[in-house]
Here is the input.
Amino acid sequence: MQIKIKDLLLIHGLKSMPIVSLMTVIVFISCSGNNAGKSESESTLTEQAGKTFSEINLETFGYLEEVMGCSCYLATDSLQFRQQNFIYAEKYGLPDKKDFGFIKLDNQLIRLEVLSVENNSEESSRNVRLGNEQVEVWLKLKLSESNEPEVLPAKGEIQIHIPDRLPWIQTVVGTCGC
Here is the structure.
């Protein structure tokens, strides 16, 4: 009996077919499993990265009746300050120690309670943390001396933190005094 090469290849191909099929299925499943794992972790990252945070858009306001006497008024720059376009106002020095401040968001003036204050006369600095259930404000100011002893020019930074919004950080200028 003579076996031709063609017949040998055909017989060999048929015998190895289940093994090749099995190997193909194993490779396909293992690759699919890896892709599924990657897709899951990639989708988690995409969901985290894709989470939308709305920006904080602070609005300006003028002098407030509630904030007369010892106070700080701050604007984004000296021109805005001269035009009385303030982004922050604070009333301090109240006898009951319930000092408060204001910012304006979404066309609404928001009152914030002063949570902590650090006044450092050696460094001429004032750090204030204010907040309510909606927003938290951190204020870091350097106070300068002026010709008017009761009014001190202030420069520094304001940070506004609202859940599900990107923090807003801005340099500010203004005055603090009584």
